[in-house]
Amino acid sequence: MRSVAARLGRAPSTISREIGRNAGQDGYRASVADEAAWNRALRPKLCKLVKNRALAGVVANLLRMLWSPEQIAGWLTHTYPNDPSLHVSHETIYRSLFIQARGALKKELLEHLRRTRGMRRSRSYTQKTAIHGQIADAVSISERPASVEDRAVPGHWEGDLVFGSGNSQIATLVERQTRYVMLVKLEGKDSQSVVDALIKNARKLPQELYKSLTWDRGTEMHGHKRFTMATDIQVYFCDPQSPWQRGSNENTNGLLRQYLPKGIDISGYSQLQLNAIARQLNERPRKTLGFHTPAEMFSECVASTG
Question: pLDDT tens digits for 29-39?
Answer without folding.
Answer: 888 888 777 77
